[in-house]
Write a sequence for this structure.
């Protein structure tokens, strides 16, 4: 299975928590998870992977390799989001990222567009 990782934004902790609760209440069929980190560091996102509910079809080592690979290849993107996160200030925010299996992400996008 192929995975993807991307930083998608900065969110208040409360909004992120509410979003995660909605996902729990309406189980997804798609292989997409959102992660929150208090710091813009590789270690913080690797630690946040531990919060992903167990997915029997996911290979956790491949997910971790995908995150590390993203981190090694996208320094400009990481610096951009680090700046946005620093601009948000305070301790009430999280840096949010999405990790997904490629087919699950495609299915989520199709569902958003009404094609799924």
């Amino acid at each position: 299975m192929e995975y993807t990782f991307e930083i998608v934004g900065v969110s208040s902790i409360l909004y992120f928590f509410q979003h995660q609760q909605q996902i729990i209440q309406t189980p997804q069929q798609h292989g997409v998870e959102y992660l929150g980190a208090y710091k813009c560091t590789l270690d913080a996102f690797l630690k946040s992977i531990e919060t992903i509910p167990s997915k029997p079809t996911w290979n956790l080592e491949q997910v971790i390799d995908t995150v590390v690979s993203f981190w090694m290849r996208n320094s400009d993107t990481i610096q951009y989001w680090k700046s946005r996160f620093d601009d948000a200030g305070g301790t009430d925010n999280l840096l949010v990222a999405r990790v997904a299996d490629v087919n699950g992400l495609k299915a989520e996008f199709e569902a958003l567009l009404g094609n799924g």
Observations:
- Helices lie at 13-25, 42-49, 60-73, 75-88, 102-112.
